[in-house]
């Protein structure tokens, strides 16, 4: 089944991303794949995605990453 309104922002080097793609394909779904590291979403698309997810940009951050800690991104100021 082709489902063109299903988009996966994918990183083939990420095991969780590969797992998500495998789950979708196992269910017969073929998402549009965006290799977000090669083609990052622009600000408008990010706002749209955050609205659809019902979260803030801060909630999208990966808090366990070294960069998050080194850049002190937990500081709300």
Describe the structure.
The protein has helices at 15-26, 43-53, 57-60, 66-70; strands at residues 2-10, 30-35. With 77 residues, it is an alpha+beta fold. It has one domain: Glutaredoxin, CATH 3.40.30. The mean pLDDT is 93.
Can you give keywords for this protein?
alpha+beta; Arsenate reductase; 4 helices; Arsenate_reductase-like; two-stranded parallel ribbon; Glutaredoxin; 77 residues; Thioredoxin-like_sf
Helix-strand blueprint:
Elements: E1 2-10, H1 15-26, E2 30-35, H2 43-53, H3 57-60, H4 66-70
Parallel strand pairs: 1-2
Pfam family, one: ArsC
Organism: Pseudomonas savastanoi pv. glycinea (Pseudomonas syringae pv. glycinea)
Family: Belongs to the ArsC family.
What's the CATH topology label? Glutaredoxin
Round the mean pLDDT to the nearest integer and report it: 93
> Under the CATH scheme, which architecture would be assigned?
3-Layer(aba) Sandwich
Q: Helix tally?
A: 4
Any low-confidence stretches, pLDDT <50, length ≥5? none
Q: What is the string of helix and strand elements? A: EHEHHH
Give the helix/strand class: alpha+beta
Q: What is the helix fraction of residues, given as a range?
A: 40-55%
Q: Compute the gyration radius: what is it? A: 15 Å
- The total of beta strands comes to 2
Which percent band covers the strand fraction? 15-25%
| CA distance, first residue to last residue | 46 Å
Lateral strand order in the biggest sheet: 1-2
Domain count: 1
């Amino acid at each position: 089944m082709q489902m063109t309104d299903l988009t996966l922002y994918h990183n083939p080097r990420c095991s969780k991303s590969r797992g998500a793609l495998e789950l979708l394909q196992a269910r017969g779904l073929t998402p549009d794949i965006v290799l977000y590291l090669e083609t990052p979403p622009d600000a408008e698309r990010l706002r749209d995605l955050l609205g659809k997810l019902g979260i803030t940009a801060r909630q999208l951050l990966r808090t366990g990453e070294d960069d998050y800690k080194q850049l002190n991104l937990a500081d709300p100021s």
